[in-house]
């Protein structure tokens, strides 16, 4: 038996696969020494999420934690392996002995040998450094070309588009993503992508890349002589396993590259393993994280003398690319097939079936991936329904009777059986529990809807319970509080819940109490329920300071008031910015400064803008008929009236509104929870709109309303929403989930089908008549003010950790360095 | 009030930080001990806990402003920045990452709250 105490494990490469290996070993109590060499200047990060780095994720967001006890040497490349003496040498000039060596060197993008490929302006798309370089080069560029129209190429193309470049994609094959979709799917996909403004050249190659007088790329010439303007060129024409170290030391490699390994991930040298994208397992190089992770786990178990084996992996893929669902599972051909194609709606679905029409072989989906979740587990099994029905199988239908051995999470290779066992054995009650116990759902997240369904199927009530403290839904709690006249959280949890609450149920109950007009949100016990933003009536920022947003109803403001805002910002040294909702944000205030800032603002006639609350934010307006030559109604006047009516109204999520003076819609009312557009006869009311994460246009609820009818309808709409929505469910999602939809909503609030309109009206009336400005009420109450200090034992001392630097003549938080302790 | 004295003193060096009544039920407050920032919490049952005020995930000194509650009966605070939940008893983050904030002994003597941060 090996003496594990002294085993020296050396890992070459620190990518996602190496990370999974050392994490698995750490989790299983491996007690040898672990030394990892990574050529990149930083620890391993989530390469799958690489593109999010361009849309705001930081390096820290993407970086994996390094387990304790691991010696990680970043920025060091291993240059040779001495198998006889069992050492590796590095470009840092030293060497490291090993008992077991694991190669996790991944792969490198393939750059075809076209003239000009080395010019400045040519890039690959694989590392954070690559993305930094692409971003820099894009600053002075007009246009870009991506060579390769596969999954990664299209992702890169979307990134270039996001950087503001006019983007082209060149694909050798006759259609896009030839590895995942067939010609029909490719053409539907192309329609989507061209709709986004990208130019696609299929069946095309590259003759040369040309440089301008400054030596940088200016264009790319196709074989037919057509020149495409481009200052940035990204190669994404496939990957090549990085097997150079293995080759040089005589390990067996495949004909087309890849380090040959057995089922235990061992190479032709028994002391050396290879895992991830550099390994050739069963004749295949796997280019997806799922199989790479499985390989890492197999190697970890073998290193610990276990019996695990890698026996191949499902290469099914499901992704959302440029907003389009694309999915492929199982085989890409079969004796029989059923196809649904809707080029106008941009949907293509095709299932492959055995010649006896009994067995599902595989499928391709573009534009609607619902059949993927539902049907992938049935590959190789009897068809779960009539083929034409299956094409329309939503996530809810066919998946219900999944067999136990069906793989639910492909990223982490977790079957339905494993998940059900975990639910039963550990008494799991939520998706988080499944994630913690099985890893399912922790990588790309596309299986999470299935995890929820499996919970439901296992008899766990997931949809409803707010959290571990209440078995009720938010709507049920609202009714309880309303009907029983409950006024405190303590009473509610004592009578209807367990424990002492948490960051989920406390703010939700606080919001219900506030919606029902049960006192100032910082009164007595209520203060302890609030999120920090509500506690301090301001929005917390990354360095622990807060931002202050005074209400500017309808976006209308006098010069004098503008001057006051400027003076307050100047006197308190705050950063100012015009927000996306027609008002002004003052950022960088420490808690002890807030009351003094409010005092100045309140004295000048301002009040809280509730930027911090799940409450009405703003009612935006366009300039309207008073000034605009097209306006048909006074949109500013209405917006101000509505903003004042609903200010301070607490709701399940934030509420936004806008009023436009005519159909040109300059106020973007249809992206709001309730939006109003003027007509010659009155007002059209739209509801359920949303910007943000999942944009949705609002639906027309009623047309040509008089101002009185409009206000009454909005009152009821809001109160009905507040009563029945889930926690943090905006009106858009609420309306989409409302049984009976818009028609039902009309019946309830316009025809009073439930007989509740009088009560809804009364509730809104009470809100309007009892409204008080939360800032004023706070500065006038010494008890509430006590909280506004950085330190209770040193009230005059500002938090010493907060400091600023200057950028564009204003303050900006100093970057924070992190020290994390683990136990 | 024995529960208030439940935490054993470690090195015995206690610093008075505020009066017990300065702390509101189920809320935290930050105190400065030398140059160390400590978040002290008073839970519903009147017990006191002290943690480091630094949120290890965001690097901001804000733990005292988190929502206090329970998880499976154990008293907790959720970071106000990104909502990771920490045990008030052990300082360990409930997300399984092994991240923890320091905990400090805390007690009440004659109505004065004292912490020990050697
Ligand atoms: C300040 C502001 C950005 C700016 O400088 O322009 C902003 C800042 C924040 N937004 Fe926003 N949003 C701001 C306008 C918007 C808009 C545009 C608008 O309102 O017209 C949108 C899209 C419209 C919409 O909401 O439908 C917007 C969509 C979001 C979302 C996504 C909501 C969704 O339904 O998907 C969030 C996240 C959330 O609320 O859960 C968010 C959350 C936030 C938070 C609270 C994030 C956070 O937790 O720190 C930011 C803090 C506010 C603060 O003051 O520190 N913000 N945010 C804007 C304040 C407007 C105001 O005057 O009140
Ligand atoms: C933009 C992008 C999007 C992707 N999206 C998806 C997706 O949606 N789904 C999916 O399943 N997969 C996706 N992938 C693929 C996935 O990222 C890879 O399968 C995964 O990264 C492979 O991990 P690895 O650790 O084996 O290799 P790598 O991530 O390549 O890591 C290997 C590391 O080893 C280092 N190294 C190499 N040689 C040496 C040496 N001699 N000395 C020291 N260090 C060395 C390299 O610098 C590298 O950091 C995507 C990839 C990219 C680039
Ligand atoms: S929406 Fe109509 S009225 Fe309002 S500013 Fe635009 S064009 Fe003018
Ligand atoms: S399938 Fe990607 S996380 Fe489960």
TrEMBL record, chain B:
GO terms for biological process: nitrate assimilation. SUPFAM superfamilies: ISP domain. Gene3D superfamilies: Rieske [2Fe-2S] iron-sulphur domain. It holds the Pfam family Rieske_2. Keywords: 2Fe-2S, Iron, Iron-sulfur, Metal-binding, Nitrate assimilation, Oxidoreductase. GO terms for molecular function: 2 iron, 2 sulfur cluster binding; metal ion binding; monooxygenase activity; nitrite reductase [NAD(P)H] activity; oxidoreductase activity, acting on paired donors, with incorporation or reduction of molecular oxygen. Coiled coil: none annotated. InterPro entries: NirD (IPR017881), Rieske-like_NirD (IPR012748), Rieske_2Fe-2S (IPR017941), Rieske_2Fe-2S_sf (IPR036922). Residues 15-115 form the Rieske domain. It comes from the Bacteria. NCBIfam families: nirD_assim_sml. This is Nitrite reductase small subunit NirD. It comes from Microbispora catharanthi.
């Amino acid at each position: 038996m090996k003496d594990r105490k002294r085993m020296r494990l050396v890992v070459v490469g620190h990518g996602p696969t190496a990370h999974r290996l050392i994490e698995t070993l750490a989790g299983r109590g491996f007690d040898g020494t672990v030394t990892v060499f990574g050529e990149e200047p930083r620890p391993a990060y989530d390469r799958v999420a690489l593109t999010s780095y361009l849309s705001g994720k930081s390096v820290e967001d993407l970086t994996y934690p390094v387990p304790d006890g691991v010696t990680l040497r970043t920025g060091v490349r291993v240059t040779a392996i001495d198998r006889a003496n069992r050492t590796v040498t590095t470009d840092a000039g030293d060497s490291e002995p090993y008992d077991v060596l694991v190669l996790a060197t991944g792969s490198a993008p393939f750059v075809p040998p076209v003239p000009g490929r080395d010019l400045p302006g040519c890039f690959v798309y694989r590392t954070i450094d690559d993305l930094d370089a692409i971003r820099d080069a894009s600053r002075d560029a007009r246009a870009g070309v991506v060579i390769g129209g596969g999954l990664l190429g299209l992702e890169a193309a979307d990134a270039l588009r996001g950087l503001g470049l006019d983007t082209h994609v060149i694909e050798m094959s006759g259609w896009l993503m030839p590895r995942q979709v067939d010609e029909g799917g490719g053409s539907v996909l192309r329609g989507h992508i061209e709709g986004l403004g990208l130019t696609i050249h299929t069946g095309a190659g590259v003759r040369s890349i040309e440089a301008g007088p400054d030596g940088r790329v200016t264009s790319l010439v196709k074989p037919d002589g057509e020149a495409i303007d481009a200052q940035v060129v990204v190669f994404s024409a496939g990957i090549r396993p990085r097997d150079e170290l293995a080759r040089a030391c005589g390990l067996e490699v495949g004909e087309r590259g890849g380090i040959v390994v057995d089922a235990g991930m061992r190479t032709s040298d028994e002391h050396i393993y290879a895992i991830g994208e550099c390994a050739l397992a069963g004749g295949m190089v796997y280019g997806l994280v799922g199989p790479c992770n499985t390989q890492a786990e197999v190697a970890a178990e073998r290193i610990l003398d276990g019996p695990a084996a890698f026996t191949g992996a499902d290469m099914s893929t499901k992704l959302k690319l440029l907003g389009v669902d694309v999915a492929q599972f199982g085989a890409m051909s079969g004796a029989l097939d059923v196809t649904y194609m809707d080029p106008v709606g941009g949907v293509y679905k095709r299932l492959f079936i055995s010649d006896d029409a009994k067995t599902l072989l595989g499928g391709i989906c573009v534009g609607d991936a619902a059949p993927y979740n539902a049907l992938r587990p049935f590959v190789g099994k009897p068809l779960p329904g009539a083929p034409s029905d299956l094409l329309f199988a939503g996530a809810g239908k066919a998946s219900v009777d999944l067999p136990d051995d069906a793989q639910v999470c492909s990223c982490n290779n977790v079957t339905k059986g494993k998940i059900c066992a975990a639910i039963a054995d550990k008494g799991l009650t939520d998706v988080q529990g499944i994630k913690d116990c099985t890893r399912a759902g922790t990588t790309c997240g596309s299986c999470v809807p299935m995890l929820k369904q499996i919970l439901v199927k296992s008899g766990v009530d997931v949809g409803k319970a707010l959290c571990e403290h209440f078995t009720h839904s938010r709507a049920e709690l609202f009714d309880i509080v309303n009907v029983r006249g409950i006024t405190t959280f303590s009473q509610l949890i004592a009578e209807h819940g367990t424990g002492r609450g948490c960051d989920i149920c406390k703010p939700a109950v606080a919001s219900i109490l506030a919606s029902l007009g049960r006192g100032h949100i910082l009164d007595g016990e209520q203060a302890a329920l609030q999120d920090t933003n509500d506690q301090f009536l301001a929005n917390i920022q990354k360095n622990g300071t807060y931002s202050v947003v005074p209400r500017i109803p309808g976006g209308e403001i006098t010069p004098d008031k503008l001057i006051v805002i400027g003076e307050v910002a100047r006197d308190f040294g705050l950063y100012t910015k015009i927000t996306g909702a027609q008002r002004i944000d003052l950022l960088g205030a420490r808690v002890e400064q807030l009351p003094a800032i409010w005092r100045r603002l309140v004295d000048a006639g301002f009040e809280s803008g509730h930027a911090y609350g799940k409450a009405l934010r703003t009612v935006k307006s366009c300039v309207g008929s008073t000034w605009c030559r097209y306006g048909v109604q006074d949109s500013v006047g209405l917006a101000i009236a509505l903003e004042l009516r609903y200010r301070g109204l607490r709701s399940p999520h934030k509420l936004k509104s806008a009023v436009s003076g005519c159909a040109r819609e300059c106020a973007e009312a249809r992206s709001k929870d309730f939006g109003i557009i003027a007509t010659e006869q009155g007002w059209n009311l739209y509801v359920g709109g949303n910007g943000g994460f999942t944009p949705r246009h609002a639906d027309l609820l009623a047309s040509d309303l008089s101002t009185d009818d409009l206000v009454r309808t909005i009152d009821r709409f809001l109160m009905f929403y507040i009563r029945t929505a889930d926690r943090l469910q905006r009106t858009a999602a609420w309306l989409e989930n409302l049984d009976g939809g818009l028609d039902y909503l009309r019946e309830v609030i316009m025809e009073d089908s439930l007989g509740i309109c009088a009560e809804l009206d009364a509730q809104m009336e009470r809100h309007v008549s009892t409204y008080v400005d939360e800032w004023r009420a706070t500065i006038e109450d010494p008890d509430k003010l006590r909280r506004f200090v950085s330190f209770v034992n040193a009230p005059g001392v500002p938090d010493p950790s907060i400091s600023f630097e200057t950028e564009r003549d204003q303050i900006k938080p100093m970057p924070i360095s992190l020290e994390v302790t683990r136990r | 009030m024995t529960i208030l004295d439940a935490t054993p003193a470690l090195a015995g060096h206690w610093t008075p930080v505020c009066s017990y009544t300065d702390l509101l039920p189920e809320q935290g407050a930050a105190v400065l001990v030398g140059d160390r920032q400590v978040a002290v919490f008073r839970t519903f049952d009147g017990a006191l806990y002290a943690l480091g005020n630094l949120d290890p995930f965001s690097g901001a000194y804000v733990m005292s402003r988190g929502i206090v509650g329970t998880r499976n009966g154990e008293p907790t605070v959720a970071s106000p920045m990104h909502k990771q939940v920490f045990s008030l008893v052990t300082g360990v983050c409930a997300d399984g990452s092994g991240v923890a904030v320091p905990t400090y002994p805390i007690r009440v003597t004659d109505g004065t709250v004292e912490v020990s941060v050697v």
